[in-house]
Each structure stands twice: as structure tokens, then as C-alpha cells.
Amino acid sequence: MAANWSAESIQDLSGATIVVTGANSGLGYEATKAFAREGGHVIMACRSEKRGRTAAESIREDLPSASLSVHECDLADLDSVRAFAREFEATYPSLHVLCNNAGVMAIPRTETEQGFETQFGVNHLGHFALTGLLLDRLRETGGETRVVTQSSAVHERGRIDFSDLQGETQYDPWNAYAQSKLANLLFAYELDRRLSESEGEIESAACHPGYAATDLQRRGPEMRGSRLRLWAMGAMNALVAQDAETGALPLLYAATHPEIEGGEYVGPGGFMGMRGAPEIQRSSERSYDREDAARLWELSEELTGVDYRL
Q1: CB neighbours of 86 closer than 8 A, spacing ≥ 6?
Q2: What pLDDT sits at residue 236?
Q3: CA nearest neighbour of 151 among 286, 6, 9, 290
Q4: pLDDT value for 234
Q5: Are 42 and 49 in contact, with CB atoms under 8 Å apart?
Q6: Cβ atoms 146, 202 nearer than 8 A
Q7: 8 A C-beta contact, residue 113 and residue 78
Q8: Which domain range does residue 38 map to?
Q9: β-strands 265-268, 278-281 pairing
Q10: DSSP labels, the chain
Q11: Which of 36, 152, 191, 219 is the most buried (most CB within 10 A)?
Q12: Per the structure, how many domains does the chain have?
């Protein structure tokens, strides 16, 4: 465990271009702020451009020299993801780190613009498509580049239900969330394996924040209109969770630490993996299932229409 590692441990990022999805709040906001503090240029990929600009203004109040750009990228709409990728390629000549951070958690069943179950569609398919569309820019950037995908400890209860992937027959919000977070890891590890076979300069790693207090926990109870669950979640956040700034450390560690290797998984090293300084960990046995990973990969290419050409 990197017991003394903090955001201040990040080396100089001057000249680095970094994309963070969900950068306007929670872990994405704190990661964006940390990257910018060390001189990186951060592209804030946000579902709402308006909220993204408000977040950027807030960061600049503390860091007047922060180099930030805000672009709309709605992971629930693959047309928006493609538009973001086209705009990025037309505007930015390099990409050093892609942080697949945004997500939704334990919400009632809804569907994305393309008809996917929202948690699977946003948390996995949206990031799968985005990574594939930006892969050429990662390739073309000199030196080592990284893709870091945010998972969750909840992935440990997850299973990929290939017979009902979109939860059309049976839907449980937490099972769907766990499935999407397991899919994040299967993707991150499979991406690293495929990159290792084809080219050596792009590393794919994964991370999880432990239990961090963010607005992510509020969405499900709010959508259900459950005041009791909303109160209980707020109480748990206050009593147990670490703050979002600390929760962002595994993502920052995976994105910037010089000794990180592809296929590694970073999470808090403290109490039950819920809090503390980042360390290299091992995820669930299911997350290393190569057969499931390959099957999910082929299906994801089919569903998104994004061919990685690896």
C-alpha cells in the first residue's frame, strides 16, 4: 500500500492531455481538479455541458491557471459519444490518459437512447464505445498512454447474464449495477490483453473508490421517490464513507503512478477496502474469466457498432 501517497504525490503533468468522463461532480470532479493542479490539460466529458461549465468555473476559483475544456458526452446516447470523439480528434492532437469514470448506480430500470438497460448502457457500453473511438489518438500519442476504467467493489456480487443482459425478463437495480461494474473489469482486462498482443504503448488498468460519499448514491432513491432510502443513504455517507477527494485517489494513482502496469486493479487499502490510501489489489475471480471477457467484447462491438480493429 502506498500509505503516504496522495494527490500531491502526482508528478508534473505539463503537456499531458487527459479526458475524464463525469468530470462535473463527485470523483470525476476531484480527479479533474487534481490533474489540473499538476499542469495537465483536462477535457471534461459531461452529460450536461452546462453543469460541466459550472464545475470548471468552480475549479478555476481555486486554481485560476487550470487548463480545462468542457465538452458534452452523454454516455446514454452513442450518437453523443461519437460526436464527442469526432470533436476531440478534430481539436486535440494527443491523448495521454482516458479516465472512464462516469456512472449511474442502482436506479430503476430505464433505457438509453439506443434501447440498452441504462446501467449496462452507461457504465459499460458507453465507455466501451468511447475508448474504441479514441483508440487511434491514444496510439498516435508519443510515449506510454493509459486507459483507466472505474469499477466498484460491488462487482464482486456481479454475474454477466448473457441470457438477459438488458434486464428485460428480470430486473434488480443492485444486480444490474453489479453486472455493469463486473463488465467494466472484464473490459479493462481484455483490453489490456488485446493491446499487449498488438502494441505495447497503451496500458489498460482499473480501479475502484471504496465507499466514497458522492451524489451517485442519491440517484436511485430520488428516482424511486423514497425519502427513507434517501435518508438512510445520507446517514451511511456521513457515518462510514470517505470524502470524494479521498475516493478519487485510486483513479489518480492508476492514471499517473509511473509503476502501474496494464491489467492492474487499484483500490483503497484500508478498512475492508472501503477507505484509505491506494494499493494494488485483486478483483473477483469472475473478473478474470477470459471466456466471458471475450464473449462480452464481441457482443459489445456488435451492440455499439464500434470495431477496435485489434
Answers
A1: none
A2: 54
A3: 286
A4: 54
A5: no
A6: yes
A7: yes
A8: 12-301
A9: antiparallel
A10: --TT--GGGPPP-TT-EEEEETTTSHHHHHHHHHHHHTT-EEEEEES-HHHHHHHHHHHHHH-TT-EEEEEE--TT-HHHHHHHHHHHHHH-S--SEEEE-----SPPP-B-TTS-BHHIIIIIIIHHHHHHHHHHHHHHSSS-EEEEEE--GGGGG----TTSTT-SS---HHHHHHHHHHHHHHHHHHHHHHHHHH-SSEEEEEE---SB--THHHHHHHHHT-HHHHHHHHHHHHHTPBPHHHHTHHHHHHHH-TT--TT-EEEE-SGGGSSSSEEEE---GGGG-HHHHHHHHHHHHHHH------
A11: 191
A12: 1
Q: Is the dihedral of CA 155, 84, 307, 204 positive or negative?
A: negative
Residue 163 lies in a domain: yes
The grid coordinates listed for 106 are 442502482
Measured distance CA(184)–CA(21) in Å, rounded? 14
Q: Hey, what amino acid is at 143?
A: G
* Global confidence as pTM: 0.92
HEC secondary structure over 14-83: CCCEEEEECCCCHHHHHHHHHHHHCCCEEEEEECCHHHHHHHHHHHHHHCCCCEEEEEECCCCCHHHHHH
CB atoms within 10 A of CB 11: 11
In a domain, 7, yes or no: no
Give domain status of residue 5, yes or no: no
With CA atoms as reference, report the closest residue to 178 among 217, 123, 137, 239.
Answer: 123
Reported as half-sphere exposure (CB side, CA atoms, 13 A), residue 297 has a value of: 22
Catalytic annotation present for 177:
yes
The pLDDT tens digits of the residues spanning 137-195 come to: 999 998 999 999 999 999 999 999 999 999 999 999 999 999 999 999 999 999 999 99
Please name every residue paired with 207 in a beta bridge, in sequence order, or none if there are none: 150, 266
- Closest to 76 measured CA to CA, from 23, 25, 113: 113
The CATH number for 114's domain is 3.40.50.720
Domain annotation covers residue 3: no
